[in-house]
Amino acid sequence: MKVSEIGEFGLIDLIDQRVGRFTYPVLMGIGDDASILHGDSAYDLVTTTDMLMEGVHFLMGKTPPYDLGYKSHTVNLSDVAAMGAIPVQSFLSLALPLDAEVESVKSFLEGFLDAGPGVQLSGGDTVSSLSGWGISVTVIGRVLSGRALRRDTAQPGDTIWLSGPVGDSAAGLAILLGKAVPESPEEAAFLTEKHNRPVPQLKMGRILAQGDLSKCAIDMSDGLLQDLGHICERSGVGARLDLENIPLSPQIISLGKKNGVDPLREWALGGGEDYSLIFTMRPDQEKRLEKVLEHEDLEAVPIGQIVPGKEISLVERGKQIPFEGIGGYNHFKKGD
To answer: Could you give the residue ranges of the DSSP H alpha helices within 41-167?
Structure first.
C-alpha cells in the first residue's frame, strides 16, 4: 500500500497508533493544532511545527520571498492562536538550493520576522537542497494553565462560530494560477494578499481562552468542512452548518460572479488557508462573547451547531443540501 492510498490523515493516524497515548507532563500530543506540555501552576506550553515545500505549498515564481517568509511564520502562529496561546519563541530551518539568491533569503527573513513581532527567533538549521526551497518552522507559546482550546471538547448543543470571511485565500490562489480572472486590479490585490499574507487570529484565540468563552477551536488551514470535520472526529460529535450565515467578502462574491462559479462551494467550503478560527461555545456564553467582540473590535459570527452523531450536514434556509465534490487540502492524496 502506498502513502497516496491512505492520504495525509491516514498517515497521521498510523503514526498516532504507533506512538500510543501521551503521558504527563504532556497534556496533549498528536491530534491537535499544537501539543500541550504542563509548565507550572500559571501556564502550560504549546508547541507546533510545520513544513512548506517548493512545488507543493508554493511556487517561487508566484510568491515573493518576503511573502513566503511572512506566511511561513503565520501558519505556525495560527496554530498557536487556535490553542488560545501567546507565541513567545520560534525556530526556523531552511533547505536552500546552491543557486538561491542571498537577497531572496534576506527578503524571506524580513517577512518572517515581520509576521511575528515580539516572537523571538531562537535558532534552527540550514542545509543545502537538490530540489528547491524547504522550510520548517516551530513555534512555542504559552497559555493559562488548563485553558488551552482543544479539538476534542465540542459538545452537542454548542454553537459553531467563525472569526471572519472564508474563501479569500483560495480565490487569491486561483487568480495567481490563472484559474480565475478578477474584475479589477484592486480585487486581485485584495484576494492575492489574503493568500500570501494571511493574518493569524492571535487576539481572538487569546481572548477566548483567557475569558473562558470557549474550550474548543481549530484554525482554518485545510478548508471549512475538513477542519470542522477534525473537531467532530476528535470530539465524537456531528455538526450542522447554516450556509447562509457563512461570511463571504464582497471581493470573492464579485470574482465568483465574473467567472461563473459559486464562491461558497468553489472557494469557501473547501479552499483552506484562510486561518480564521472555527470555535464552539455554549449558548449561554453568546451574549458575553458579543460584548467582548464589540469591546475588542473583533469579528465572529455563528454558522451552525454541534449535534449528536458523527455527520456534518449542510443546511440552506432550512433545507438540507448535498456537498459531494467539496473537500479540502490533503497531502499525499492523488489529484491534490
So the answer is: 65-82, 102-115
